[in-house]
Design a protein that fits this description.
The complex is a heterodimer of chains A (about 150) and B (about 180). The longest helix of chain A is centred in the middle third of the chain and has 27 residues. Chain A is mostly helical and about 150 residues long. Chain B is mainly α. Helix content of chain B is about 70%, strand content about 0%. The longest helix of chain B is centred in the first third of the chain and has 24 residues. Chain B starts with a helix and ends with a helix. The chains are: A mainly alpha (about 150), B mainly alpha (about 180). Chains A and B meet through helix 1 of A and helix 2, helix 3, helix 6 and helix 9 of B.
Chain lengths: ~150, ~180
């Protein structure tokens, strides 16, 4: 019987695209350059960038503070100019969580829980039209969640 | 290129990038063939190569010189390779379509290999696909890369005795499959 050593060790048995190794090296060189750039962004510019992102939130806080000290209907008039959709969109972009919003509401937690208990599933379903329910079911992958 | 020269460059933050480029140049071909023999398909080999060298780049500061640079690189490549094959197997639920036969088909396809599908070198690769992945990678390191059992032991974390036994069994099995007729 023949032995394995009788078979030539033809390593380059496989086809490799032309210039693959040169291209791979160039790709790796690009990657290290990108990562070095990201790693060496000066701390000062990141702080400025953070401030720029925080600016809309600061403006909103100032407006809210102004409203809370302004008597009369001025604040309500201002709010009336902003649509509910715009407000929701703004809050979503600012990344304010539901918990944070609830914490701003001046209602005792017991009262909220009581209201929730009184709110039946059919009440909940009435609040949504068919297209909204379909949208929600698409967002929740039942298979992933429960199976 | 001397390994010690590359290590000297990657140790210093100022020359790390240069050192890494030297490392890629020095080891990419050996690592590629190590991976390609395991995953067979070039695109898969390229994906694993990228993972391996990105991991090397991000962990250069963790290289402690308690093993050679080459052993450290091979260890990362071996782990990535075995992890890739494990993931690939998890994707196939039906036994009718197992990974080994998919890879075996690729070996008989001229799109992937230079030699005729009937060539003994191709038959050897197909027989190797019948071995468990870890036994196959050990066989490749010993048979194709002429590595010592001590080196393979450092890379795989398996004892020299167990590796010798594994290689012996693999050789007998492969000889039986390829050379009996």
């Amino acid at each position: 019987m023949k032995k394995l050593n009788d078979i030539r060790k033809n390593e380059e048995l496989y086809k490799v695209p032309e210039n693959y190794f040169d291209e791979f090296q160039a790709r790796m060189s690009d990657l290290t350059s990108e990562e070095s750039t990201v790693a060496t962004v000066p701390a000062r510019s990141t702080t400025l960038a953070r401030l720029a992102y925080a600016l809309p939130a600061v403006v909103l806080l100032l407006v809210v503070a102004y409203w809370s000290y302004t008597p009369g209907d001025a604040a309500e008039d201002l709010l009336a100019d902003i649509s509910t959709d715009e407000l929701i969109e703004f809050l979503e972009q600012e990344g304010i969580s539901e918990d944070e919003l609830i914490s701003l509401v001046d209602i005792p937690i017991e009262e909220l829980e009581k209201e929730l208990e009184e709110y039946s599933t059919s009440d909940l379903l009435e609040d949504f039209d068919d297209s909204e329910l379909e949208e929600i079911s698409e967002e929740i992958d039942l298979y992933e969640e429960y199976l | 290129m001397e390994e010690s020269f590359i290590i000297e460059k990657i140790k210093s933050e100022d020359t790390r990038k240069y050192g890494f480029n030297l490392l890629v140049k020095a080891y990419q071909e050996r690592v590629y063939w190590h991976i390609r023999k395991m995953v067979i398909d070039h695109d898969d080999a390229d994906d694993v190569m990228q993972e391996v060298f990105v991991k090397i780049w991000r962990n250069l500061d963790k290289f402690r010189e308690d093993s050679s640079l080459f052993t450290w690189i091979y260890r990362i490549a071996t782990n990535e390779c075995l992890g890739f094959l494990k993931k690939k197997k998890r994707r196939f639920f039906l036994p009718i379509h197992d990974v080994a036969s998919e890879l075996s088909d690729k070996l008989s396809n001229s799109q992937h290999v230079l030699l005729d599908g009937e060539a003994i070198e191709v038959k050897l690769q197909q027989a190797l696909l019948k071995l468990p992945d870890k036994q196959r990678i050990v066989f490749n390191m010993k048979y194709y890369d002429d590595m010592s059992f001590n080196e393979i032991s450092e890379i795989t974390g398996t004892s020299v005795g167990a590796l010798k036994a594994s290689y012996h069994h693999a050789t007998k099995k492969v000889e039986k499959l390829v050379l009996t007729d």
